[in-house]
Amino acid sequence: MKPFSSILIVDDEPNNFDVIETFLEKENYQLYYAQNGNKAINSLERVKPDLILMDVMMPEIDGLETCRLIKQSDRWHPIPIIMVTALTSKEDLARCLTAGADDFISKPIHGMELRARINSMLRIKHQYDEVQELLQWRQDMVNMMVHDLRNSLTNMILSAHILQYPNLPPEKQQIKVHQIIMAGQELQSMIDSLLLMAKLESSNMVLNYSDVDLHSLCHSIVEQFKEIAKNKNLQLISELPKPGGGNLKVDLGIFRRIIDNLVANAIKFSPVNSKIILRANYLEDGWARIEVADFGLGIQEELREIIFNKYETGKLIKNTSQTGLGLAFCKMAIEAHGGKITLRDNHPQGSIFTVEIPEFAKVEGNTRS
């Protein structure tokens, strides 16, 4: 949304513009003036108004014809037009609406009524703009996801074809099998994230709580990703409480996906020959905390408020799949558990994602290993 709204005032009498300007001087509007319909149409590209105040009675082409021409354009049709008219009969007002006007105001103009009608039309226009941005955004993300899904599927098919070659060395067979597995896991992860988020958004997700040992869960995740990290020359380090130190009350399948996503992201965006740290501990106030720290490029401060939004990819990285689903799923799933996720800098370089979850059964003598 623009920092201020722009209004194009179309009237052949400059004094009328001065009156409107006086009524709106305390509002946060950028006002533009056109003396006739032709100049108004020619100024649309330059001004890009959020709203048009159009006088009906003008020489050359009147306000009704100007309104009709603007509304015929797919580009300018969404701009709300308020007709300013001295005509008061129902037939005249009906002509305004037939021409495509969104509202009208009668002369002499009353300041309070003018401001109210402008605010109403601008509110509708801004809502329309937001919907259009969202639709375009989703279309872009759908295109990106289809691209990523196709890439993973293509890798699986090509690797499977290569496995059919006669006399393929065993070491190359293993590489192609590994590539097929990785591509399949990427496909499964994207599809599962979409399905789970749809359930969370519709409140149809029922969490199946069970007692989960924090050490066992995180140790299992480290073992799962150890080989993947090694292939990228990354060191995956764990700092965990001792086994049996406490029990989280979580949905194991969903909560594991949360930590899986955070570790997978850290591996994806970490430079080679760096390290990733998975920390976990029980807090004194009855909460548990899990942190995933990397030493990558970090996330710019202006992106930290939106990085957890669905389809928000942050800074695009070349040759790296980014659907904008992982962190959005994490946030929704953590909040469904009554917890929270935050992001901060990892000095001197990188990012730390922190997950905090309430309600665990603490065991006496809990210490860190």
Report on this structure.
With 369 residues, the chain is α/β, with parallel strands linked by helices. It folds into 3 domains: 105 residues, Response regulator (Rossmann fold); 63 residues; 154 residues, Heat Shock Protein 90 (2-Layer Sandwich), CATH 3.30.565. Helix content is 46%, strand content 20%. The chain contains 9 helices and 13 strands. A 5-stranded parallel sheet has the order 2-1-3-4-5, sandwiched between helices. Strand 4, helix 4 and strand 5 form a beta-alpha-beta unit. It starts with a strand and ends in a 7-residue tail after the last strand. The C terminus is likely disordered.
Question: Which secondary structure elements does this structure contain, and how are they paired or packed?
Answer:
Elements lengths: L4 E6 L3 H10 L5 E6 L2 H11 L3 E5 L7 H9 L9 E5 L4 H9 L4 E4 L4 H53 L6 H32 L7 E5 H18 L3 E5 L6 E6 H18 L5 E8 L4 E8 L31 H11 L3 E6 L5 E8 L1 E3 L7
Parallel strand pairs: 1-2, 1-3, 3-4, 4-5, 7-9
Antiparallel strand pairs: 6-8, 8-13, 9-10, 10-12, 11-12
Structure characteristics:
single chain; alpha/beta; Rossmann fold; Heat Shock Protein 90; five-stranded parallel β-sheet; five-stranded mixed β-sheet; 46% helix; elongated
Number of extended strands: 13
Structural class call reads: alpha/beta
With strands numbered from the N-terminus, the spatial order across the biggest sheet is 2-1-3-4-5
| First-residue to last-residue Cα separation | 51 Å
